[in-house]
Amino acid sequence: MSELLYIKDLKVYFNTEEGVVKALAGVNFEIVKGSFHGLIGETGCGKSVTGLSILKLLDNNALIEGGEIIYKDENLLDKTEKQMQKDFRGNEIAMIFQDPGSSLNPVFTIQDQIQESVKMYKKASKQEYRNIVIEELKKVKLPDVEGLLDKYPHQLSGGMKQRVMIAMMLACNPNLLIADEPTTALDVSIQAQFLQVLKNLKDKFDMTVLYITHDLAVVSEICDYVSVMYAGRIVENVPVRELFKNPVHPYSYKLVHSVLGVKTFLEDLEEIPGSVPRLIDPPSGCRFHPRCEEAIDICKTKVPQLKKIGKNHYVACHRR
Amino acid sequence: MANTIIETKDLKKYFDTLKGPCKAVNKVNLRIKQGETFGLVGESGCGKSTLVRTILKLIEPTSGQIFLDGVDITDYKKKKLMALRKKMSLVFQDPHSSLNPRMTVFDTLSRPLKIHNLTKNNEETMIEITKLLKLMGMQPEHMIRFPHELSGGQKQRIGIARALAVKPELIFLDEPTSALDVSVQTKILKLLNKTKKIRDLTYFYISHDINLIRVVSDRIGVMYLGQIVEIGEVDLIYNNPIHPYTKGLFASVPEPDPDKKIKGEPLSGEVPSPVNPPMGCSFAPRCPFVEPKCREEKPKLKLLSDGRRVACHKDNLR
Known about the structure:
The complex is a heterodimer.
Chain A: E1 3-16, E2 19-32, E3 36-40, H1 47-54, E4 62-71, E5 74-75, H2 81-88, E6 93-96, H3 100-103, H4 110-119, H5 126-139, H6 145-148, H7 158-170, E7 176-180, H8 188-205, E8 208-213, H9 216-222, E9 225-230, E10 233-239, H10 240-245, H11 250-256, H12 297-301, E11 307-310, E12 313-315
Chain B: E1 4-17, E2 20-33, E3 37-41, H1 48-55, E4 63-68, E5 71-72, H2 78-85, E6 88-91, H3 95-98, H4 105-115, H5 122-135, H6 152-164, E7 170-174, H7 182-199, E8 202-207, H8 210-216, E9 219-224, E10 227-233, H9 234-239, H10 244-252, H11 292-296, E11 302-303, E12 309-310
Parallel strand pairs in B: 3-8, 3-9, 6-7, 7-8
Antiparallel strand pairs in B: 1-2, 1-4, 4-5, 9-10, 10-12, 11-12
């Protein structure tokens, strides 16, 4: 097993008017080459920040306090902005975002926008560019590709826009794709089509994907491994089947059993007492302890470390 | 049999656009029984929300009739409409934008009470609001809070309390949990379920989330391009969807089970524009079982032996 990306003890803080927000407080996981890796958690747990940190696209008020992001034996955190832009963003690691409507430029045609990323690595004639763009659009199974080239984003539906985003990213031929809630704005039928496109890409191009989402059903559909995140820390790294059969961390357990569709009756669904903590003033020790039914004294004082409990299965809990 | 609380007959709502009328709701016939939970599912743009807003008379129907407790309310205006607002209310999708950021919880909840003269003085209003907050599992001190001081789940509880304030018989819930996290979603759904029993309510859910509609509803309706294509008992439809659109829609939903994967693309293509819907069955251009007849004639909802209704020309699908 070889990992493409390895994140070790990543800490990211944000300076805000109210104080320092400890958004990431020790994130640890690795992404195996050629796998779909899911990163799940509720709103505000730091999923997107993790994704943005990998590409070093964080806002100006972000402070990377510590840790390593090792991509192909190089620590991305040591790279300068120039090196990131030239050597990593796009051609090695690419990202697609939640809302395809706002990530495309409304005043440029589809061809212009995809061409732009092709131009970064290839000099060619107008006609050649056009052919490359057509090829990329065909990969994501868009209908009537030729007619699409001169259209503007507002003339496309949400599902089509998201595919254009993928085509744009494919044009750079990256090794790792970070997808941040790519289907949240889409309908289920369009989501199913989109997931199919991703699955095909994995089979054909051996793509590695970090899939950030709050939707466990989607995770079960396409991911191989999952990292469960809570309040800025990874609480469990687990193969997807294990997560649904045998979620070990108390938070993972509650999360899996609160998903509609796992249970048929409303009364059988689990609730998580309390609410997500504010990260300006996070709970001491294990950040889940105020909401955990199994918490003991040590949970309040000591941060639990990830420990191995099975094949590719790690959990951070004092009680396990 | 329970009484019918809401009935629509050939209800239509067209919006004028530059390209012609947009047929958002196109001949919908519905009957909601007293005390049941009805769930309406469909993808975005199918007309779910427009249908509910038309029934609530927040927008005027283009044609057709709406009956509440057997009384035709289609042409109700002003004063009569006010009385109607006490019988039916609505919980909105996004609690972050449906609450006025400059009004405290007290202000928000006292509005409906004052408008409908349900309380005589401030003291009574206080008592009533305390009761509502308690019902929602909240404390009296939340009364002086502003929306930004509340969590998403708490905001939606206030949204529900506002709908309950006028003591309605029927509540429409427009995607009440889609803006919330899963763990909060469960709490809100359980709370709604409990409140329904306490207050003896009828619920009309609309959602694009099929799994959600399944756990809350007694009966469901599936909507496509302004029309109901299948309607009946939730378990019947869930275990054996008959209309080709229902089949495709249900097959598109990923199951939270890594051993069950979606097979291929259950629904290919995209929803046609409601401005220029297909001539015959609106699903015909995407239907894998399409026949020549489907492209010419609109299918009507037909009653099947198990009590459900399906709008499809194909008889051999059941």
